[in-house]
Amino acid sequence: MTPSRRLVKHRITRFKSMSAALRQLEPFLRIDGARLLRTGRPARNFGRMLPREMLGNWLVCAAVNFDRPGEPLYFTSDPNGGDGLLYDEKNKTIQPTEHVYVRPARAGDTRSGDEFIRDAVADKARLGPPYARGKILVVLLEATLPWQPTNAARMLPAHAFEGVFVTGLESYAEGEYTFAVAWLTRQEGHTQAPVFRVRIAKGFDRWDVTRAQ
Fold first, then answer.
1. Fewest CB atoms within 10 A around its CB: which of 27, 84, 137, 139?
2. pTM, whole model, 2 decimals?
3. Residue 7 DSSP SS3
4. How many domains does the chain have?
């Protein structure tokens, strides 16, 4: 992913580091984290971003920074009241994000995980190209249905977003969280959607990223 908008001067808020951001996210992932992510109130001191939007942005940054030295990509508040900006320190560029949250299926809903993702992207795409153009769409799954990133990428509807990332909790064991982060790209030469696993340590003091495919 290469952010495409040049940085201009605005008053924004950012964390000192990815580690500092993770510590702020810890309360939302602890006890009954799913409920807090679903209903958590906007952060007044961070551009009124929702906790789930902050988590989604953090996960995307962690994945994209996987094979890049340092932390060149991080997120900030959006001075226009949006869902956050991805800022590339190296290239001095920014990318606005748009977020969509996928809740668990209701009784009788037989859609697959890939279909949930398709429908979530379609809902945002209906807002039109002027709304989507230049933005990264981040899908945060609370739904626990299995999903296949490459198949989900093939099922994406037409859209004008710069890119689509899907993040979802993959496992929780002994206090550690592992999230899957998939870049649903349909670019030529990509036979599989790039997928990363982001494991957050029990103490929320470190994390590691591995390339799953």
1. 27
2. 0.89
3. coil
4. 1
